[in-house]
Amino acid sequence: MIARERYMKVVKPLIGNEFIKIITGVRRSGKSVLLEQIREVIKTEYDNPNVIYLNFESFTNRKYLNNPDLFYGFLAENSAKNEKTYYFFDEIQLVQEWEAIINSLRVDFDADIYVTGSNASILSGEMATLLSGRYVQIEVYPFSFKEYVELKKIEIHDQTAINQAFADYMYLGGMPSVVGQTAPDDSKLQELSSIYDSILLRDISLRIPKGNQEILDTLALLLMDSITSEVNLNKIKNRLKDVGFNINSETLKNYMAKMDQAYLFYTVEHANIRGSERLRANSKYYTVDNGLWHSQIESQGTNLGNQLENLVFIELKRRGYKVKFGEINGKEIDFVASKNGNKEYYQVTYEIPRDSNREIENLLEIPDNYLKTLIVGVDNGTRSVEGVNVLPIKEWLLSE
Predict the structure, then answer these.
(1) Same domain? 73 vs 37
(2) How many domains does the chain have?
(3) TM segments (predicted)?
(4) 264 and 389 fall within a common domain
C-alpha cells in the first residue's frame, strides 16, 4: 500500500479540528485507502482514540441506508461523551439525510469527521446549506506518474526502466488496482473496463431516469472518442440521432453534467486571453485516467499527442490548478492554468517538428510575463526557446 503523501500533507494539519474532511474522486482512485491511512495515523499518534468506521457499500451496513434515525442512534450510542470521537464514513452519500446526521454529530459531540464520496453531488444540495464553510474538500486522483514510479521501485536515473514505465503509464493509466497487478495488458484492460462500467452504473445511471442506460453508454463512448477535442452540443445531439437516440439539449446537458460529477470526465471551458477576438461556446473534454480511456477506445501507438495532452491536463488538476483552454489571434493555447492568483500557459506536443515552431509561436503571442511552458514527448535536448520553457513530459511529471 503506497502512502498518498500528497493528500496526507493536506490532511495531517486538519486532524482534530472542527472542519469536516470530504474526500472525493472517481471510483477506485484510492479514497478508501487514504481513509485507512488517516485512521492509522490517528491510532498511532493518539492514545486509545475512539474511532468509528462504516463503509456504506458493505452489506453489513445496508440497514442504515434508509433509516437515518437508526444510524444516528448507533452513532450516539458509540460516541465518546467526554473526549473526541473520530468518524470515518465511506461513500456517505448513499445514506438518506446524511447531511443532517453529520451536522448533528458536529453539534452534539466533540467530533472529527472524515467522509468519502464518488460523486461531486455530495458537495451540493442539503450539504451546501447545512455545512457551508465547515468542510474541506480533498479530491483524490489515480496515481501520478511519480507515485507510479515509487510504487514500482524504479530508480529515476534508470532511463530504460523509466521509459518503459512511462509507456505503460500513458497507455494503462494509474488506477491503483491496475497498477498493482502483474497481469498481461489484456487483463488490465478488462479490469479497467470493469471499473468504467461500475462508474457508469453506480455513479451515473442511478441519477438519471430508468430506461436510458443505452443512451448514457453511447454518450460516454462519444465523449471518450472526443477527448482533447472541442465538443459542440449540437454535434453530439446529431451523432446520437444518427444512431437512433433523440434527446433534447437540456437532457443532454444533464447527462454530461452527471458524468462530470462522477469524475469520469472534466469539462474545460474557453479562457478569454487578452487579444482574443471571441470567447468560444464550445468546451473540451478530458478523462480522469488514460487507462479508462483506452479500455473503451483502442488507440495504442496512435494519437500520442492527445494521450500526452490528457496526461498533462490531469496532472495540472492533480497539482491544484484551475484549467481552461485558450486562443489568441487565432492560435490555440492548450492550457491556461490558474492557482493562487497566478497564471501559467502550457502547450503539449509529442514531438517538435524540425521545420516548425508553431507550438512555441502560439505561446509567444501571449502579451504577458506569466510562465510559458512547452511539454514534449520526445526530448531533443532543448530547454528554452525565446523565454519559453521546454520540458520533456517525464521530467515534468517527476518534478512535482
Answers:
(1) yes
(2) 2
(3) none
(4) yes
Q: Which domain holds residue 13?
A: 5-139
Residue 279 clears pLDDT 60, i.e. is over it: no
Element (H, E) at 331: strand 331-339
Cα within 13 Å of Cα(97), Cβ side = 12
Cβ neighbour number for residue 89 with a 10 Å cutoff: 26
Same-domain pairing of 384 and 235: yes
CA dist 216 → 123, 201, 241 (Å): 23, 10, 13
Identity of residue 268: V
Residue 129 and residue 154 in one domain = no
| Cβ-Cβ contacts under 8 Å for 58 (sequence gap 6 or more) | none
**Whats the size of the chain, residue-wise?**
400
Roughly what angle, to the nearest 10 degrees, separates helices 213-224 and 249-261? 70
Same domain, 311 and 192: yes
Residues 323 and 336: beta-carbon distance below 8 Å = yes
User: What pTM, to 2 d.p., does this model score?
Assistant: 0.94
**Quick one: pLDDT band at residue 300, thresholds 50, 70, 90?**
low
Last residue of a domain, one of 115, 139, 163: 139
Q: In what order do the strands lie in the sheet with 230-231?
A: 230-231, 283-287, 265-268
Q: According to the model, what pLDDT value does residue 342 have?
A: 95
Q: Sheet containing 322-328: give its strands across.
A: 270-271, 322-328, 331-339, 342-349, 371-376, 388-392, 384-385
